[in-house]
């Protein structure tokens, strides 16, 4: 018999909810839409027929309700793969661990997790205002230094190739997203491959007062090619979703509202309109 997970490893609040998310298993649907910005949760659930639950803890805001009769959960995560690691681990525990006995459940439950976020294009032919679905996510952070996961030969080669291209001391990690969700939600969208950066300024080549160590990182990333693989855009969470989704057995897909193009230096006049188009696309296809 598997030993119970210690209280120090999986923290449960006095009310029976899980520590950071402050949720109980019955609070979430099988289909989950995630956003970085807590204020964007209500931008999605304003379209719901009914909201049955609202929970807020730190940057994690959760609404569960129905849209056109389908039960959905919308959750904010904050920015960065460090937050995604907390989010995915606790979300998985809600459905795959008995929180009372602290034992893993005998039957695995797979969730459908769809990120709806903003992103910048690194290819001139993907203009600001586009909607993009990520086939692959490439992590430029070191999250996967602390985990082990099976990767395809292509995924490994992409990581090693980018290590050489960027001249950095570690290999970025690459994971494919959910094929089933991509088929369902990628229709009419640009299909791309997303670089996940561990910051907004230096790691994305922006200079305010500090000079980035790789000032031409956008040019290096955009020119990287391996067979048919090419990076199209960048943000701060996708690769974390894809890596943890594979390890934990969940379907994960990242959908991106392209609000800027770093090659042509354009930024959309109304980013809210682009995000709203992506929200309605997601709700009507999930």
Descriptive account of the structure:
The protein is α/β, with parallel strands linked by helices and 286 residues long. The protein folds into 2 domains: 1-109, Nucleoside phosphorylase domain (Rossmann fold, 3-Layer(aba) Sandwich), CATH 3.40.50.1580; 114-286, Nucleoside phosphorylase domain (Rossmann fold, 3-Layer(aba) Sandwich), CATH 3.40.50. It has 7 helices and 15 strands. The N and C termini lie far apart (38 Å).
**What spatial form do the alpha-carbon principal axes imply?**
globular
Return the string of H and E elements.
EHEEEHEEEEHEHEHEEEHEEH
Low-confidence stretches: none
Rg over CA atoms, rounded to whole Å, is 19 Å
Number of strands: 15
Number of domains: 2
CATH superfamily of the largest domain: Nucleoside phosphorylase domain
Helical stretch tally? 7
Alpha-beta content class: alpha/beta
Distance between the termini: 38 Å
Query: Could you name the CATH class of the largest domain?
Result: Alpha Beta
Mean pLDDT: 96
Major beta sheet summary: 5 strands, mixed, barrel
Per the CATH scheme, the topology name of the largest domain is Rossmann fold
Q: What keywords describe this structure?
A:
globular, Rossmann fold, five-stranded mixed barrel, 7 helices, 286 residues, 29% strand, single chain, alpha/beta
Write the layout of secondary structure elements.
Layout: E1 31-35, H1 39-45, E2 50-57, E3 60-67, E4 70-76, H2 81-96, E5 97-98, E6 103-104, E7 112-121, E8 131-139, H3 153-166, E9 173-176, H4 179-185, E10 190-196, H5 217-223, E11 225-226, E12 229-230, E13 233-235, H6 238-248, E14 251-261, E15 266-267, H7 271-285
Parallel strand pairs: 1-4, 1-7, 7-14, 8-10, 10-13
Antiparallel strand pairs: 2-3, 3-4, 5-6, 7-13, 8-9, 8-14, 11-12, 14-15
């Amino acid at each position: 018999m598997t030993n119970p997970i210690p209280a120090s490893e999986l923290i449960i609040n006095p009310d029976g909810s899980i520590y950071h998310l402050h949720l109980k298993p019955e609070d979430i649907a099988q289909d989950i839409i995630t956003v970085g910005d807590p204020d964007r949760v209500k931008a999605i659930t304003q379209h719901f027929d009914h909201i049955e639950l609202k929970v807020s803890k730190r940057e994690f805001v959760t609404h569960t309700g129905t849209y056109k009769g389908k039960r959905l959960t919308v959750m904010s995560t904050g920015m960065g793969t460090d937050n995604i690691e907390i989010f995915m681990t606790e979300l998985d525990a809600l459905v795959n661990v008995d929180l009372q006995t602290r034992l893993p459940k005998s039957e695995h439950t797979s969730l459908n997790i769809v990120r709806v976020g903003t992103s910048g294009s690194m290819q001139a032919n993907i203009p600001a205002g586009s909607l993009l679905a990520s086939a692959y996510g490439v992590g430029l952070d070191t999250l996967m230094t602390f985990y082990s996961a099976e990767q395809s030969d292509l995924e490994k080669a992409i990581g090693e190739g980018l290590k050489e291209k960027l001249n950095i001391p570690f290999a970025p990690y690459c994971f494919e997203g959910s094929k089933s969700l991509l088929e369902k939600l990628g229709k009419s969208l640009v299909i791309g491959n997303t670089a996940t950066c561990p910051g907004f300024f230096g790691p994305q080549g922006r200079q305010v007062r500090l000079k980035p160590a790789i000032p031409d990182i956008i040019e290096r990333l955009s020119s990287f090619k391996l067979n048919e693989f090419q990076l199209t855009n960048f943000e701060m969470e996708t690769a974390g979703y894809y890596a943890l989704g594979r390890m934990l057995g969940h379907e994960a897909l990242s959908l991106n509202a392209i609000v800027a193009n770093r090659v042509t230096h354009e930024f959309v006049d109304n980013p809210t309109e682009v995000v709203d188009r992506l929200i309605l696309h997601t709700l009507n296809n999930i």
